[in-house]
């Protein structure tokens, strides 16, 4: 692999693909490299029994115009999060109570076929010869007229400018010659990757027994291992599912088989004996995904960070290096809408 291009995008998540889409529409030359063997980044949809389940982000909300416009353009169906019925609550000792409230995510929206359908729609719309999966980047060297990017396989891409559409902590971990300013490295290293420390568990069932019992599938727990649970079923038909965010610290959840056993036991406590026979339990631990998280991201976040491009990281290498990705979005940073916001801002700066 030895390529030359006007703009190289590093990162094939939602933000990188959305930027590529804008550059393609503007007739601008670009190439996109992605470390994983798939596109989507933190968007990851698994198919079980013919139904799609999101192991990364799952929701978007009213008041997020970029997501609404993209879904409309792709013709992707949307549906409201299931919210009929009561919420379950589990106290510190594991005692369960019903009727402590109603579905906490009412008014949230999901995508028919999972968010992977959005990634697939964007990917299919792009020139396939400009998309390069399984191409991790190791080093960036400043050269006359731009940047030479080196890949793990020994390939090289020379570009006038490079867009880093990836978590900022991963940006800091790359090798740069000459080195980036210490102030820039410090600023981007301190930018927490949204949801990178999270693990998500999904239990799939043949029937929605919680709905049949008048429950929304929502549960809050102070006992765990999941601290927050919601209905993850498809818009129509089955199989059906419950998903939860695992509250156990990252270092305490390395044994996924033990975690599966604990997840199933918790669902039985909350929803009864019918929860004891899932079709499948799937766990995605983002904290140990090297293309998402660093060891710094294993520390829990207790509030939504203030995102955007840090001032110290603006105009790196005289503008030849550009931070993008959802953490670079000043308004919706961390969300799907933020990924699109960052792509929009970057495209504007590139004249697209």
Account of the protein in words:
It contains 8 helices and 19 strands. With 352 residues, the chain is an alpha/beta fold. Helix 1 runs parallel beside helix 3 (116-125) and helix 1 (14-25) packs parallel to helix 8. It is elongated. The protein starts with a strand and ends with a helix.
What is the structure about, briefly put?
With 352 residues, the protein is of the alpha/beta class. Helices cover 22% and strands 29% of the residues.
Which terms would index this structure?
single chain, 352 residues, alpha/beta, 8-stranded mixed beta sheet, 7-stranded mixed beta sheet, 29% strand
What is the percent of helical residues?
10-25%
Q: Could you give the order of the helices and strands?
A: EHEEEHEEEEHEEEEHEHEHEEEHEEH
Low-confidence runs of at least 5 consecutive residues: none
| Global mean pLDDT | 95
Major β-sheet profile: 8 strands, mixed
């Amino acid at each position: 692999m030895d390529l030359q291009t006007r703009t190289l995008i590093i990162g094939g998540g939602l933000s990188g693909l959305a930027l590529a889409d804008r550059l393609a529409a503007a007739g601008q030359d670009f190439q996109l490299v992605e470390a994983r063997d798939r596109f989507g980044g933190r968007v990851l949809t698994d198919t079980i029994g013919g139904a799609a389940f999101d192991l990364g982000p799952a929701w978007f909300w009213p008041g997020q115009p970029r997501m609404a416009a993209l879904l409309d353009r792709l013709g992707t169906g949307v549906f409201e999060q299931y919210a009929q019925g009561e919420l379950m609550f589990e106290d510190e000792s594991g005692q369960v109570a019903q009727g402590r409230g109603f579905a906490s995510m009412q008014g949230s929206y999901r995508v028919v076929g999972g968010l992977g359908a959005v990634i697939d729609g964007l990917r299919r719309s792009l020139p396939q010869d400009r998309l390069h999966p399984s191409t991790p980047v190791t080093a960036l060297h400043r050269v006359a007229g731009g940047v030479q990017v080196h890949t793990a396989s020994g390939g090289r891409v020379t570009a006038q400018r490079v867009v880093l559409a990836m978590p900022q902590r991963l940006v800091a971990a790359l090798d740069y010659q000459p080195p980036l300013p210490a102030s820039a490295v410090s600023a981007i290293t301190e930018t927490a990757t949204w949801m990178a420390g999270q693990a998500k568990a999904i239990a799939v069932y043949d029937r929605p027994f919680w709905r049949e019992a008048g429950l929304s599938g929502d549960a809050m727990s102070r006992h765990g291992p999941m601290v927050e649970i919601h209905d993850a079923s498809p818009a129509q038909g089955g199989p059906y599912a419950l998903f939860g965010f695992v509250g156990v610290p990252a270092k305490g959840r390395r044994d996924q088989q033990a975690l599966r056993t604990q997840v199933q036991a918790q669902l039985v406590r909350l929803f009864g004996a019918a929860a004891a026979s899932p079709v499948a339990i799937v766990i995605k631990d983002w904290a140990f995904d090297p293309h998402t998280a660093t060891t710094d991201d294993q520390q829990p976040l207790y509030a939504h960070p203030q995102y955007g491009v840090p001032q110290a990281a603006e105009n790196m290498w005289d503008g030849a290096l550009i931070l993008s990705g959802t953490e670079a979005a000043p308004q919706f940073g961390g969300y799907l809408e933020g990924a699109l916001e960052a792509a929009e801002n970057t495209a504007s700066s590139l004249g697209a």
